Each structure stands twice: as C-alpha cells, then as structure tokens.
Amino acid sequence: MKIGLLGFGVVGRGVYDITANMDDIQVAKVVCLEDVTLPDAEVTKDFQSVLNDTTIDTVVEAMGGLHPAYEFVRAAIEAGKNIVTSNKALVCTFYDELLPLAEKMGVQFRCTAAVGGGIGWLSELERSRRIQPIEQVGGIMNGTCNYILDSMTRLGLGYEEALKQAQSLGYAEAKPATDVEGIDTWHKVILSSNIAFGVSLDSATVPVTGISKITAADVAAFTAHGYTCKLISTGKCEDGKYSAYVQPTLVPAGQPEAAVPSNYNLISLVGKYSGRMSFFGQGAGRYPTAYNVVQDCADLLSGKGFYCAYGEKVAAVNDDELIFYVRGNKDAWLEENVSEYWGEAVVTKPVSVSAMHGWLKNNPDAFIAAIARNSL
Ligand code: HSE
User: Fold this and answer.
1) What DSSP string runs through 248-300?
2) Cα 142 to averaged position of ligand 1 atoms, centre (Å)
3) Do 194 and 237 contact (CB within 8 A), yes or no?
4) How far is CA 33 from the centre of its chain?
5) Closest to 144 in 3D by CA, of 152, 133, 156
6) Index of the ligand 1 atom closest to the CA of residue 142
7) Ligand 1 atom closest to the CA of 265, numbered from 1
8) Concatenated DSSP letters of 193-230
C-alpha cells in the first residue's frame, strides 16, 4: 500500500513513525504546509500531486477540520483512492455525501480512530453488528472533558486550570469549545449510532450540552451525594425508534464510568446476545490515534471497507424520562418539575430529555446533568 498522507501534525507524524519500518504499508508522499524533510517520503504542499500519482492507492487524511479536508477527501474518492481518516467532524458532517460516493466509486473508507482514538471501538462494533442487533452505544468519548472532570473531582483543580493542562498535553481540539461544549462527543455518538444501527441519524435531532458551565461548587455537591460527573453520550434503537443525546451525567460511585481517569474513554455497546461490552483506552494523543489509523490501513489491505452499508436517514426521538440536576434560572417550568433542592440547585422529577434540552435552549447559562440512578 502506498499512502498519500495529508497533514503532518499530531496524528500525521504518528502515522509516519509507525509505518516507517513496515514493508507492506508505506507513506510515499506527505502533503503539509510546514517545511519538513523526511528520509523516506516526498514532502509537498501540492495536493494535486497526490491525486495525479497513480502509484498512491490510499489517502490518509490527518489534517483535521472540515476545509480543505472535505474537498481533498472528496477529490481523492473521485480519483478512485481509498480513504482512511481520524476526522470525526468530517465523517459526521459529510456522511450523506462521502459514504454513498465511496460506495459508488467502489473505494474503501475507514475511520476507526475517529471515535475512541486508540480503542478498537468501531472495528469491534463492525464485528458485533454482523451477528446481533445493537440496542445501545455510548459512554465517555472525549478525553479532554474526562481529563477536566477527573482533575476537578480527584485533584480539586479549577475548570480553567484543568482545561489548560488538557491543551498542553495535546488532547484538546484546536478550538477547545469543540470538546467542552460536547460537539466532539456529538460527532462521535452520531457516527457510532450510524454504524451500530445502519442508518444516517439526522444530527439536528440529537441534542448536546457540554461541561463549560460546571463549577467547583457543582463538583463538591456531586461528591457529597456519592456521584461523579462525566460527559456521557447515548445512542439507542428500541423497536425501530431511535434516540441519541450528549449531556453531563452523574454516575454513582461503583459504576465503571465513575472510575475512568485522565484522558481515557470508556465506550460501550449493548447487543441482543452479548449484553453490555465495554472498551477502555486512550481516546486521544499521537500514537494511540495513529495506531488505529495504521490498523485501518492494514484492514484495507485485507479487503475491509466501511463498517456497514449506508443506511436511511432517521430522526432521533428523545422521550426518555430522566432526573436532572439543574443550576440555573428557576422559572415556572423548572419550579413545576422540582423534586428536591441541592443547595441552590434543583433535582427534577423525571422529565423527557427533549423537554430538558428545550428548556436549556432558553436558559443557556444554566448547567444541567442527568442523574443516572441505575446502570448506564
Ligand atoms: N479532542 C479529542 C478528545 C481528541 O479530547 O477526545 C480525540 O478525538
């Protein structure tokens, strides 16, 4: 396999290093804007030279961001080249274009590192869905948020200090709002749900809220009540009805999610026969992520394409009734739904996820967290 590698940042450099001594997978050209010299690969600023190089059969996209990654990947598919990417924003945003196009062009497309970094999550989901209906996917999918919440809970760090550390360790996206507002997790759960259920979820029907409004006082209240706050994603398919959402969630001590440290992810599926299976590992960072990019290249060599056939467009209907911790404006709706008070904050009666997120849209400064009384 001869690779045209797009981008030479955190992930691209890792892919180059891991493949440096491999015989069957070689990086032939690197497209990047920096002036680097590499012993075994040509470095160019010109993407066209990858497109026109007929010896390059696979494009590995490690640029991140939507543009020009989208234009380059699209052009590479149209030129008949296989694609491997770790770019969840790209795959999720252009799912309805890129996947049908890859099917039409007969090229292979894999993106295992897009969810869970170094964890073989999507590749195991692919195996799992072959022989059983998948009922649920989700869990902790963002290393930056987990690092921040873990540092605030265990070490008593402030939010800003913990975020700075996550950035300096290379976990955070270029725009950290993508992590802390839950967008990165949102992309990952939509992509995981698409593969698990063989559909294309309408992202506009998947509500998301992140951790940027959490305070040290919230964390202290959670600890006092025996809970740990985690950013949790949920994707479900029950009797042909889909639901999907991303929100901070209070996990009881003793649940596996509560113990997940640092930048680690814990992603689970519930299958008809297997029951719950969980996957734990480093969800971010150079070599864990590059590891799965190179695994995808090896999978392409053995003839594997995308994880499922492109499926029909479906909407999420989020009528699950959950209990929420809410710190914010106590308007009539919230007062009507109070079950108890934790200091200034409110714990609600069971309310639907869609009603809670609808309220949050009108109260954007509030912080909410679902309270998981039982197993996730
Ligand atoms: N910013 C992401 C995270 C990187 O923190 O998990 C991996 O997708």
Assistant:
1) EEEEETTSGGGG--TTEEEEEEEETTTEEEEEEEE-SSHHHHHHHHHHHHHHH
2) 5
3) no
4) 27
5) 152
6) 6
7) 6
8) HHHHHTSEE-GGGS-B--STT--HHHHHHHHHTTEEEE
Give me the pLDDT at residue 353, please.
Answer: 98
The encoded tokens of residue 121 equal 């999550």
| Per-residue pLDDT tens over the stretch 90-100 | 999 999 999 99
Res. 220: pLDDT tops 70: yes
CB 222 within 8 A of CB 205: no
Return the structure tokens found at 144.
Answer: 């930056």
Residue 138: strand pairing partners: 234, 268
Question: Cα separation of 353 and 320, whole Å?
Answer: 6
Q: Which residues contact 320 (CB under 8 A, 6 or more apart)?
A: 236, 243, 352, 353
Q: Residue 304 catalytic?
A: no
User: Percent helix, strand, coil in the chain (nearest 5)?
Assistant: 40, 25, 35
What is the helix (H) or strand (E) element at residue 10, kind and residue range?
helix 10-19
- State the Cα angle at 9 between 5 and 10, rounded to 5°: 110
Closest ligand 1 atom, residue 284 Cα? 7
For 317, the token pair is 């209907």
Max Cα separation, the chain?
68
Q: Which residues contact 166 (CB under 8 A, 6 or more apart)?
A: 143, 144, 147, 148, 172, 176, 179, 263
81, 188, 213, 230: the catalytic one is: 188
- How does residue 328 score in pLDDT terms, banded at 50, 70 and 90? very high
Q: Do 375 and 340 meet the contact criterion of CB atoms below 8 Å apart?
A: no
**Tokens matching residue 95:** 């799912």
Whether pTM exceeds 0.85: yes
* 185 CB within 6 A, ligand 1: no
